[in-house]
Amino acid sequence: MDPTSDSSETTETTADGSFDGPQGPPPGPGESIGPYRLVRYLGAGGMGLVYEAIDDELGDRVAIKTLSRLDPWRLFRLKQEFRTLAGIRHDNLVRHEALVVADGTWFLAMEYVAGVRLTDAVKADPSRLRPVLAQLAGGVRALHAAGVVHRDLKPANVLVEPGGRVVILDFGLAQSAAAGAAPTRRSPAGTPGYIAPELAEGAAPSPASDWFAVGVILFQLLTGELPGARRRPGPAPRRPARPRRPVRGAART
């Protein structure tokens, strides 16, 4: 599988509730963005379109993501965040290589990962469960040690390479844990089913909310479904009838 998100909907809006698209028509295979030549379209990620590309200067294969929904404040935050993410080097985190702009659209170049989705890897070989989880936890710890919260951990954002390396992808919703974002009443960013309860109540994302998502992933790997998937709404249980008290002053026979 290529480094893109699945069809599970990731929700996030701009400050005014809108979704801002790219500045122009999306690029196509054969076009160049800086030193990168687009090879093929891969899919849609958390914040834009994703392409396989070749670095013509180095010959490396990379993934290029278009970055949409960027107002000036979000662009400022993106640049700050990129400097943090580019400085993180861990085997279980996708490498962020460059942040470039072309024709008014910003693009993120990152390591190309050729692997299968986490759930598919464990389903094909259940003995992988323990080493896969150990690597996933190691990547999450490294991210938190750098002061970053992922905010959208789910199986589609975790790939397993043929050699067994686990790679966490799609930091399009990541944010600095030190930023101390205030709670908000808008819909929490992330994917339904993996969002911690406190985020749904307006709390700010934190390392704990990432670990909640890891717990959901573990449950899904063990059972094949999300927590609560078997629950079905039914009629409320009937309360037992209370005995009626005799009316005072009633005639006795």
Mean pLDDT: 79
CATH superfamily of the largest domain: Transferase(Phosphotransferase) domain 1
- Unreliable residue runs: 4-23, 180-184
The strand order across the widest sheet is 1-2-3-4-6-5
Indicate the CATH topology of the largest domain.
Transferase(Phosphotransferase), domain 1
The biggest beta sheet reads: 6 strands, antiparallel
Alpha-beta classification? alpha+beta
Radius of gyration: 24 Å
Number of helices: 5
- Strands, count: 11
In percent, how helical is the residue content?
10-25%
Number of discrete domains: 2
Which key phrases capture this entry?
11 strands, Phosphorylase Kinase, domain 1, 6-stranded antiparallel sheet, Transferase(Phosphotransferase), domain 1, 2 domains, alpha+beta, globular, 253 residues, 3-stranded antiparallel sheet, 24% helix
In short:
The chain contains five helices and eleven strands; from the N terminus they run E-E-E-E-H-E-E-E-H-H-E-E-E-E-H-H. The protein has helices at 72-86, 118-124, 129-145, 197-200, 207-223; strands at 32-33, 36-44, 49-55, 61-67, 96-102, 105-111, 116-117, 148-149, 158-160, 166-168, 175-176. Keywords: ATP-binding, Kinase, Nucleotide-binding, Transferase.
Question: What does this entry look like structurally?
Answer:
- With 253 residues, the protein is an alpha+beta fold.
- The protein folds into 2 domains: 32-111, Phosphorylase Kinase, domain 1 (2-Layer Sandwich), CATH 3.30.200.20; 116-223, Transferase(Phosphotransferase) domain 1 (Transferase(Phosphotransferase), domain 1, Orthogonal Bundle).
- It contains 5 helices and 11 strands.
- A 6-stranded antiparallel beta sheet has the order 1-2-3-4-6-5, with helices on one face. Strands 7-9-10 form a 3-stranded antiparallel beta sheet.
- Strand 2 and strand 3 form a beta hairpin.
- Helix 3 (129-145) packs antiparallel against helix 5.
- 31% of the residues are buried.
